[in-house]
Amino acid sequence: MSQQKKLNIGLFGFGVVGEGLYKVLEHTPTLNAQIKKVCIKHPEKKRNAPATLFTTDAAQLLDDEDINVIIELIDDAEAAYRIVTTALRSKRAVVSANKKMIATHIEELIALQQKHDVPFLYEAACCASIPVIRNLEEYYDNDLLQGIRGIVNGSTNYILTKVFCEQVSFDEALLQAQIAGFAESDPSLDVEGIDAVNKLSILLTHAYGILSSPNALLHTGIQSLHKQDAIYAKEKGYEIKLVAQAHKLHDGSIAAFVLPQFVAKDDQLSTVRNEYNGVIIESSLADKQFFYGKGAGGFPTASAVLSDLSALRYNYRYEYKKLNYQAPSKLGNDFYLKVCVSFKGLLQVPHERFDQILEWSSNEKRCHVTGIIHFERLIEDKWWKQPGISIVLYPDGIIDNYEPRKNELEYAGLDFVEQEVGI
Amino acid sequence: MSQQKKLNIGLFGFGVVGEGLYKVLEHTPTLNAQIKKVCIKHPEKKRNAPATLFTTDAAQLLDDEDINVIIELIDDAEAAYRIVTTALRSKRAVVSANKKMIATHIEELIALQQKHDVPFLYEAACCASIPVIRNLEEYYDNDLLQGIRGIVNGSTNYILTKVFCEQVSFDEALLQAQIAGFAESDPSLDVEGIDAVNKLSILLTHAYGILSSPNALLHTGIQSLHKQDAIYAKEKGYEIKLVAQAHKLHDGSIAAFVLPQFVAKDDQLSTVRNEYNGVIIESSLADKQFFYGKGAGGFPTASAVLSDLSALRYNYRYEYKKLNYQAPSKLGNDFYLKVCVSFKGLLQVPHERFDQILEWSSNEKRCHVTGIIHFERLIEDKWWKQPGISIVLYPDGIIDNYEPRKNELEYAGLDFVEQEVGI
Question: How many domains, chain A?
Answer without folding.
Answer: 2
